[in-house]
Amino acid sequence: MSTTLLLLADGRFPAGGHAHSGGLEAAVTAGRVRDLETLAAFLDGRLATAGLVAAAFAAAACRGGDTSTLDSEMDARTPSPALRKASRAQGRALLRAGRTLWTLSTVERELHHPVALGVVAAAAGLAPEEAALTAAYGTVTGPASAAVRLLGLDPYATHALVARLARDCDAVARRAARVATVDELPACSAPLLDIGAEAHASWEVRLFAS
Amino acid sequence: MHPEAHTHPDPHAPLTAGARALRIGIGGPVGSGKTALVAALCRTLAADLRLAVVTNDIYTTEDADFLLRNGVLPADRIRAVETGCCPHTAIRDDISANLDACEDLEHDLGPLDLVLVESGGDNLTATFSKGLVDHQIFVVDVAGGDKVPRKGGPGVTTADLLVVNKTDLAPLVGADLSVMARDAAARRGDLPTVFLSLVEDPAATPVADWVRGLVKG
Predict the structure, then answer these.
(1) Chain A residues touching chain B at CB-CB below 8 Å
(2) For domain B21-205, which CATH number applies: 3.40.50.300, 3.40.50.1820, 3.40.1280.10, 3.40.30.10?
(3) What tens digit of pLDDT does each residue of A17-65 get?
């Protein structure tokens, strides 16, 4: 537990996250998320799938895993071209911020966001489980914040949902940090997030980048 | 001297002013005429400057489409940045997507003299980060009320150039330009303010001259 962890996990950290809804804008427009109850279900599903995968990759990269291997493995788990683009854009933004604050071990300009997060967390002196926790937490706070903006949901009630997910988030981070080899990296998929992201990318009018 | 510090230069260190295109931010409230001004500047400056535009409109491609439709710049010289419902965040608090867009334009098009970064329409408190742009223009219009300069706010008080736009509408909306000039001078000290009507001056001459002075300077 450290101030550095709070800094990296802070939604105000300038790493481009504010422009991404984590699939929520597509889900709202499709009518799948429309109130607190449906938002809670969306966040549950996202944490258990994209959240676990992101956390495991962040932990593996933080532990010093080969970034190019991890990046390819992340590509294999991201069938949607729109989501690949969004993940790399956020990875690039995070590497930009991380490079300004710490000394990174990589010279890559773009990596998938979870891999970049692990690299930046390691440079910041954080442990793999802390990198995993930052990743898991980000996968729920991004869409939660987007829901406040898109649906006008009560910000207290929305934060209460995130607070109720705290133990699940911790558990996902612990599980992710236990992954020891590349072969054990999880590959949980959320097909609706992939499909939604592709539809979203084709819209003429959208408020979030993804 | 610390020779080690120079042995491995960071390949992705941001280019500093001078080594890259000059970046000028254009901000202001919704409907004040930012996009029309950008289009006018492109038309006036494109002949003698290598330039590109980054737009931050909340409707993603709306502003870029306006510039394309008006034929002021080819499509590859315009990038649209999505701002996630927070236009001011994208130009001030978390500038990463805009920095990426500026850098991509220079990378893809080769050296440029000028990148205009147009903000999404926001309010009087929205200003650009110095980490994103070198200079900023704030655009207000007479139809927004002649009290706007007096209200102040960081855009009006600190922008390097204040443009009071649509002066041709002043008689129609009962705006007193002399009041706006007096209040702007009081708020801005020595910083310049120009009055503009793109109907009467489609080349946006005073603004284009100001921009040229910065690029050549």
Answers:
(1) 12, 14-21, 89, 92-93, 95-97, 99, 107, 109, 146, 149-150, 204-209
(2) 3.40.50.300
(3) 999 999 999 999 999 999 999 999 999 999 999 999 999 999 999 999 9
